[in-house]
Design brief:
heterodimer; A: about 240 residues; Rossmann fold; four-stranded mixed sheet; 14 strands; globular; B: alpha/beta; UDP-N-acetylmuramoyl-L-alanine:D-glutamate ligase; Protein-Tyrosine Phosphatase, Chain A; 2 domains; nine-stranded mixed sheet
Chain lengths: ~240, ~450
């Protein structure tokens, strides 16, 4: 078995130590004897929707995000829509999450989006939404908790048909108003819990690994349990920092 | 109340605060004065008729300002200086309140630089680097660079600049919109290609030309994104440095020897501080000191006698163990510390104490530890004790950097964990605290009579 990961715009969209997520997935595969391959797709690069089972996009500075939005819609939209429709896992974090929707209004400009989820992001007067955050989510296996850190100027509003990733326990979430955080559909997750959220939430990393392997090999694998004492302590620390 | 009375009242509160032993003497008087008199910095600064130097950077502010202070001290000059590193407006105001002098030397927090520059009308501004740092507090580097550009443009010809040629975000500040150099700029940089990093580091922060937005082409980098670059699209490129290290020899934790080219002749520098990052700090200090009228050989002599700034490579004996303290606070700075320690660990594995706090002054967001290359010390560490409010995430980072988990221990409390690390060390121990953990450590060592009270 092999986990095949593609990072979208790893040079541009890496502002909050997004590589922590990749190294976390890699080690957890290695320790279980699961192969791991990781590639990157940058500006202009075409994406083969069948070649990878877990797609990742992180956060970037405004300038990078502008360039990436235009390039991604031009060079990758069809492939990514095809991959998600076909059951590939996609994790989009922070700036990457904002690009999943129909559009992102950044000042005077409107950045195009992938249209993978029914959501819109706008800038509103008021401070950036910054701080530790904890949300309650249920990805099918019962209620669970994600803890992390958010730092975003944009406010995201979900459309009527969109399902949030979770409910905010502590922190701001999508817009600081409606109590929702992130978005999910099929095996796609978008969230403002930025940067290295998988190290703080090992259960989500394993969930993504299992989803991606299921897409490749047809059956849901039983992942070998690991000694997660360090992971559990870091999760508890992130959760406590958020006050949850 | 008259201004003079406000000054006296604020000074009195500072003295009382120190006498009570509660600390806070480096900021409290300034905080009070600024509340009573918002333009106090401008008023007090007007008395600095020999000129004022400001130093700002993400990394190396305290060290660089300390180096300039050491050079001036050797010349018999005693500038008003916020030497304890309290570098926001209230720290500057406190120094102005409590010290007399006819020239000023202030390190200034990146975000506060525009405001302080406006009030003090400095004769020299020294700008060293911009790295990703505490994004929850400072925001994006490009936004900060834009604010600095506006602050620089607002200064008249009375302000000179010492700028790092190797940081495109900084070097660009010395040119106007036609690529013409601004008058009064002295550039510094490294011209020794043998010090280049084998590859560009992961946390790489200046990717796009400030002029046209095209990605820069890098020939080499020395620290983070500091290096030799050009824009293939519009032709903007690294300016030739006036002060340049043309040959650098590193000697682990002990320091370095280098040859420095200056407009006033070549000097040999023996710097008792480790790493290429301290060579950059020294280059900034040399460029500034030349502008302040000090002769090159006298600058080199003073820097050779330099002692580390508080918490930036101090060595203190604790229960028979040599404790070396190296502040870490962001990926670029931490990577330089890790590179230096890897040299130290060449002969035998080292013992470490890493304290990760997430208080406001550290940045509440600890994501940055996943951008720092702890992989550099994989296999080089005998024992590490993780401390601080986010110690468990630090331990997790080390596990995923490949460090064996049976060598990683978590003891959250600063005192208990330090004792544990000292007990497990033999000979030497390297302490890597974030900023507030450093303050806690220093307080602890002071209470034990092992370190001096740092704001004396």
């Amino acid at each position: 078995m092999e986990l095949r990961v593609l990072s979208l715009y790893p040079e541009q969209m890496n502002i909050y130590a997004d590589r922590g997520n990749i190294v976390f997935l890699q080690r957890r595969c290695e320790w279980r004897g699961i192969g791991f391959s990781h590639a990157g797709a940058g500006p202009g690069d075409a994406v083969d929707p069948g070649a990878h089972d877990l797609f990742y996009i992180g956060g970037g500075q405004d300038r990078d995000q502008r360039m990436v939005a235009a390039d991604m819609v031009a060079s990758k939209r069809e492939s990514l829509v095809g991959a998600v429709d076909d059951g590939a896992a996609l994790l989009a974090v922070c700036g990457g999450y904002q690009l999943l929707g129909n559009s992102y209004q950044l000042g005077e400009e409107v950045l195009p989006g992938l249209g993978l989820a029914e959501l819109e992001t706008v800038r509103e007067p008021g401070a950036r939404l910054i701080g530790n955050v904890a949300i309650e989510v249920d990805l099918g296996g019962g209620p669970n908790l994600l803890a992390g850190f958010e730092n975003h100027g944009g406010r995201t509003y979900l459309g009527a048909g969109a399902q949030p990733l979770g409910r905010v326990l502590e922190g701001h979430g999508n817009n600081g108003r409606d109590g929702f955080e992130g978005v999910r559909r099929d095996n796609l997750i978008g969230t403002y819990l930025h940067g290295p959220l998988l190290p703080k939430n090992a259960w989500l990393a394993d969930h993504l690994i299992a989803q991606a392997l299921e897409r490749r090999y047809g059956t849901r694998p039983q992942l070998e349990p690991l000694d997660d004492a360090f992971e559990d302590a870091a999760h508890a620390g992130a959760r406590a920092a958020a006050g949850a | 109340m008259l201004f003079g009375a406000k000054v006296l009242a604020s000074r009195g509160i500072g003295a009382a605060s120190r006498a009570s032993g509660r600390g806070g003497g480096t900021t409290l008087p300034g905080r009070i004065l600024l509340r009573l008199q918002p333009d106090a910095i401008a008023r007090l600064g007007a008395g600095l008729d020999r000129g004022t130097t400001l130093v700002s950077a993400t990394n190396g502010k305290t060290t660089t300002a300390g180096m300039i202070a050491a050079v001036l001290a050797a010349e018999g000059r005693a500038p008003v200086h916020n030497r304890a590193g309290s570098n926001m407006t209230w720290g500057v105001a406190t120094a102005l309140l409590e010290q007399d002098g006819n020239e000023g030397l202030f390190e200034v927090d990146e975000a506060w630089l525009p405001r302080v520059a406006e009030q003090l009308e400095p004769s020299l501004i020294v700008l060293c680097n911009l790295f990703r740092d505490q994004l929850d507090r400072y925001g994006e580097m490009e936004a900060l660079a834009d604010e600095w550009a506006r602050a620089v443009a607002a200064r008249g010809d009375g302000t000179g600049f010492a700028l790092n040629a190797d940081d495109p975000l900084i070097a660009d500040l010395g040119r106007d919109s036609d690529e013409e150099p601004r008058p009064g700029v002295i550039y510094f940089g490294i011209d020794d290609d043998s010090q280049a990093l084998p590859e560009l580091q992961h946390a790489f922060d200046a990717k796009h030309c400030r002029r046209c937005g095209h990605p820069y082409a890098y020939e080499r980098a020395f620290v983070g994104h500091l290096g030799h670059y050009s824009c293939p699209n519009c032709g903007a490129r690294r300016p030739r440095p006036d002060v340049a290290a043309t040959r650098i020899e590193l000697d682990g934790m002990r320091g370095s020897r280098s040859t420095i080219r200056t407009p006033a002749g070549e000097i040999e520098l023996e710097l008792p501080l480790p790493g290429v990052y301290n060579v950059y700090n020294a280059l900034a200090a040399i460029a500034a000191s030349l502008r302040l009228g000090v002769a090159p050989d006298r600058i080199a002599a003073a820097l050779g006698e330099m002692r580390a700034a508080f918490g930036r490579v101090e060595t203190i004996a604790v229960d028979g163990v040599d404790l070396s303290i190296l502040l870490i606070k962001n990926p670029a700075g931490a990577n330089e510390v890790l590179r230096t320690l890897r040299l130290e660990a060449e002969d035998e594995p080292i013992a470490l104490w890493i304290a990760l706090n997430d208080r406001i002054a550290d940045g509440r967001d600890v994501s940055w530890i996943w951008d720092a290359d702890f992989e550099l010390l994989d296999g080089a560490v005998r024992r590490v004790v993780c401390a601080g409010t986010r110690a468990p995430e630090m331990a997790l980072r080390l596990k995923y950097a490949g460090w064996p988990t049976d060598r990683i221990e978590v003891v959250v409390g600063i005192e208990a964990s330090l004792d544990r690390a000292v007990a497990a060390a033999s000979g030497s121990l390297y302490a890597l605290p974030t900023y507030t953990a450093l303050l806690e450590l220093h307080k602890l060592l002071t209470a034990r009579g092992l370190a001096e009270d740092f704001w004396r």
